[in-house]
Amino acid sequence: MVTGGEPLTFNLDHLCAELRKNNIAIFLETSGSQNFSGEWDWICLSPKIQTPPFDIFYTKADELKVIIQDESDFIWAEKNADLISKEAFLLLQPEWSKRKEMIPVIVDYILRNPKWQISLQTHKYLNIP
Description:
By secondary structure, the chain is α/β, with parallel strands linked by helices. It has one domain: Aldolase class I (TIM Barrel). It is 32% helix and 18% strand. A five-stranded parallel beta sheet has the order 1-2-3-4-5. The protein is globular and about 45 Å long.
């Protein structure tokens, strides 16, 4: 999994080519705000309102993960869901500092909109850095 910050700040063509030579499956999580590079087995698009993704990411992403900090973020989530492939997984994830407040709101939203699933930062619950 290539993630953290914004990995596509760097051209990842060479990294992907080397990993592929060793038959390693390669996954990317990106906001889609930088130029696309690399050859990926799976792409998670996690768009940010302040820096919307380039259109190419909507055609390449296998999943869409939208961070929910407040109820207005559901509008951003739906806007992005309308643009991504209909086969993509749709995930809503509470912003960590607002998780206690937002998890019940997200669960209620998903019950009314079952195309969405919840995503949790399990590593944080387990105190894994």
